[in-house]
Design goal:
The structure is a homodimer of 388-residue chains.
Chain A lengths: L7 H4 L2 H12 L5 H8 L3 H13 L3 E5 L10 E5 L5 E7 L3 E7 L5 E8 L4 H19 L3 E8 L2 E3 L2 E4 L8 E2 L11 E5 H12 L7 E8 L1 E8 L2 E2 L31 H4 L1 H7 L8 H8 L6 H22 L3 E6 L1 H7 L1 H11 L2 H4 L4 E4 L6 H14 L2 H12 L1
Parallel strand pairs in A: 3-6, 6-10, 11-14, 14-15
Antiparallel strand pairs in A: 1-2, 3-4, 4-5, 7-8, 8-9, 11-12, 12-13
Chain A binds a DNA duplex (30 and 30 nucleotides) through helix 1, helix 3 and helix 4.
InterPro entries (chains A, B): ATPase_NBD, ROK, WH-like_DNA-bd_sf, WH_DNA-bd_sf
Family (chains A, B): Belongs to the ROK (NagC/XylR) family.
Protein name (chains A, B): ROK family transcriptional regulator
DNA sequence: CTCTCTATGCTCGCGAGGCGAGTTTATTCG
DNA sequence: CGAATAAACTCGCCTCGCGAGCATAGAGAG
């Protein structure tokens, strides 16, 4: 069922949202193309763009001449337009950046950290506060991405970071800005689905291997986040050996079959300190070839299972999943095909390497932050803000 | 990202959609309650209801007096309002019914069948054609539910029915009515999420055991159907023994661990002709107790894995899954808890028996059919139809 | 039985967005 | 330099939603 009723105060921004959304999807669009694609009457296009210009949301600059007829203009983000603060907290470092309406992220500051939550949050909050001081009300939302399981804006399990539960609401700077918190794999998946290897796909599955397996299903550009935001923990599906207990508390987790811990186990070595670099190293170790092949098969089989269950149009592989598949392509392909339901084999979904690389999560964070800004509610608030 | 632009011609039905949607969610609402809940000005409520009455979409009848003040009226579906044809094709029988705006289904005809696709389709189509002859343009959509894997409106795998690929588009009666085709487990899940054991949950997981396991994830009342509509085939996740080949073509499928085939295997018996009734019988067989417990554990473990991965607010159990859990409650609960990630154990999602019973799929089919009718596009078409 | 009270419905003028026909404008091509 | 062309602008019109003020149907009180 549709989502309910929006007041007329918000509904009046429908046209503006449509235009800004399209602008985000296809940056550098001309106004003429835009009106054509959205089916707007030319008068309507004039009105909407005028309104958006008035509100410092877009600029119009002369387009390169393209033939006969009156030249059109190119729409772009306004230099005084709304901004989204994005922050990323990873295994060993953090970054804070700022994104404009086009989704481009400019990094403001970054540093390594020593795994102490309070100190990291302080450092990140300081940069965020500085940004709010500098840009004031132009900052409309804060979007934080962490390498951890996130639930209701709280970090509940961060094996990678080695953190316990941490409340991130301290990152919401003054002035009651909306705070969005997301998992790194989830937001990297969003980035791939919107402007990466799964662009254009209605349903996309993203899988990433770092320590264990993370991922997300993205439907129409939005992650299927579950009731508490902790969806996408595909690594804790029991695809593996039921005798193995996972640090997450469950058993037989897929996680344990695919990362550096699995390689070490298959080689009869003790569990590695840092499973991620252990796996990366294993890709170059001739002696680890069989072990790498074995975990690649586990990756392929599980991926096929998820394709059976979720029916994505495209699967994107992030982190070390891409390199893994590349190093043992035949093993992956065979396991993948073998794990598919027969009727899917004729036209299985494409499995592609992610293209956003290390910036995927940050780009995804910017994207979901902008969703907030470029929405009927968000634009109504922006307009009210500068009127009052 | 929002779904794009709707023309003004469609946008003008926003208010009407909001009202009809609420009416569907809370049948028997008074007009006053409706205006309050949707935040409509009293004048707006007057206008919208007048418009809806004008179009034969709702009726207003005097409400039971409830105290002081001017009495309000109760809104209900109009007796000359739009209808959705629903058809269900099951293992051994079929049903065709018709639903009004309140989602209530009246069965028009039903019969057993002999597993011959062409004959079944002919019979169903005949009833549907009769309905269209009788109600004409009042019939706005045809929603078909089949006990089979459905892909792009085509039936691609029907182990239950014993059918090969079948194209169901023959069921779209004349006049180009929209045809919706869905899987039975998927639509039963929709019914539970909208008006059943998962009512009110934003993210609900439905699992059902018949022959194998079917199900669906339902987000905001809509099934996560995947790229081709074949999502929700959770039974073909490799939770089981990788040595076992599944009729679907994959191996290690969860399917094989939970239904009548699994019981027979555990008892050292040959595979049953009809796994569904074999399982039902096993529930009453003292000698099958261990086997039933074993498959119930497999159900619990897999359910926990899906909870880890998808993070539903509620899990609903349909078909024989409910009875299975009831017969071996301790086994289910232990396996479920053991399979959860530790941080989920404090507040795991409720696991409830489905309440729609055998009618779930049919109710779900009516619901998704009505989504089509009660939409800006659908209402615009309805209005245009009676104007022209 | 009538008066008062109250929650609700109705009327109507207003403002806003989108539409489309007709007009104007900036370019390129001949 | 003028014709052709594609795009932008103007303006009257439509419909929706809003909200203030008015009308109304019952319940309770006397």
């Amino acid at each position: 069922m549709p989502t309910g009723h929006a007041s007329a105060n918000e509904a009046r921004w429908r046209g503006a949202v449509a235009v800004l959304d399209r602008l985000r999807r296809e940056p550098g669009s001309t106004r003429a193309a835009l009106a054509r694609d959205l089916g707007l009457a030319s008068g309507t296009a004039t009105e909407i763009t005028a309104r958006l210009r008035e509100l410092d949301l877009v600029t119009e600059t002369a387009a390169a001449a393209s033939g006969r007829g009156r030249p059109t203009s190119v729409l772009g983000p306004h230099p005084a337009g709304p901004l989204v603060l994005v922050a990323e907290i990873r295994h060993e470092d953090w970054r804070v950046g700022v994104a404009g309406l086009d989704g481009r992220v400019a990094v403001l500051d970054a540093d390594r950290h020593a795994h102490r939550p309070a100190a990291v949050l302080r450092a990140v909050a300081a940069v965020a506060d500085g940004a709010v001081d500098r840009w004031g009300r132009r900052v409309r939302a804060v979007s934080v991405v962490v390498a951890a399981t996130v639930r209701d804006g709280r970090l509940v399990q961060a094996s990678t970071l080695g953190w316990g539960p941490v409340d991130l609401t301290a990152l919401a700077p003054p002035r009651g800005l909306p705070l969005l918190v997301g998992n790194d794999a989830t937001l990297a998946g969003v980035a791939e689905a919107r402007s990466g290897a799964a662009a254009g796909a209605g349903t996309a599955l993203h899988l990433t291997v770092e320590v264990g397996i993370g991922g997300t299903l993205v439907v129409d550009g939005r992650p299927v986040a579950g009731a508490t935001g902790a969806g996408g923990e595909f690594g804790h599906l029991p695809f593996g050996d039921p005798a193995l207990r996972c640090p997450c508390g469950a058993r037989g987790c897929w996680d344990l079959e695919v990362d550096g811990r699995a390689v070490a186990r298959h080689l009869g070595e003790p569990p590695p300190e840092d499973p991620r670099s252990h796996l990366r190293a294993a890709l170059a170790r001739p002696g680890a070839r069989d072990a790498v092949e074995r975990i690649t098969r586990a990756l392929g089989t599980g991926t096929a299972g998820l394709v059976n269950a979720l029916d994505p149009e495209v699967v994107t592989l992030g982190g070390l999943a891409g390199p893994l598949r590349r190093h043992a392509r035949a093993a992956f392909d065979a396991a993948f095909a073998d794990g598919l339901m027969a009727f899917r084999r004729a036209a299985p979904p494409a499995v592609r390497d992610a293209v956003h690389g290390d910036d995927g999560a940050l780009h995804g964070a910017a994207a979901v932050g902008l969703d907030e800004v470029i929405s009927e509610r968000g634009l109504a608030a922006w307009a009210a803000d500068r009127a009052g």
